[in-house]
């Protein structure tokens, strides 16, 4: 007796079940405020910052921490809204306290620069650490810079290189430029001009002007 048709039917039934389960799971675990966030992103890329921030606010009100962080950044930079550091903190702090890495690094930046809060390097470093440990590239870069400058934490070139390299490995062009600089100067790592050129090129390819200038200078010396 040929039972292949029945077996094929079972496989089709299983495939359909798995597909439906995956779709349901996607809907269940979809980011809150997904539709508003998507609309905000589209408005941002269209250059309509005012519309973008309005959509991000709606997404944030639905619990989207990424959107909440972006609203804070918009207020810090004055994109689509009047620049307002106090308002930026109002949006950033809750997301940071809920453990969102990007918000933590932004809150740290506010403490470092005194944006809407009393300048406090040590407090900035604490937020950078939280963000960096979650893999946030900006947090890693800023923590590395804090180590390099000895600002809010004991100066440590090796720790500076460690964290800046992590950010660079994620594709952050400013971090890539700084890794190139550290290799060039031999700070926290053995001096290596070939590695310096490599990282300057990576940053320059992303349009980093400082990297382009450094690259031209190094290549002229070769």
Question: Explain this structure to me?
Answer:
The protein is an all-alpha fold. It has twelve helices and no strands.
Detail the poorly predicted runs.
1-29
How does the major sheet shape up?
Answer: none
Query: Beta-strand percentage?
Result: under 5%
Number of helices: 12
Question: What topology does this entry show?
Answer:
Layout: H1 4-29, H2 34-45, H3 49-61, H4 65-77, H5 85-97, H6 101-113, H7 121-133, H8 137-149, H9 157-169, H10 173-185, H11 193-205, H12 209-221
Question: What's a quick, concise take on this entry?
Answer:
With 222 residues, the chain is mainly alpha-helical. It is built from twelve helices and no strands. Helix 8 (137-149) packs antiparallel against helix 9.
Attribute tags:
222 residues, mainly alpha, 76% helix, disordered N terminus
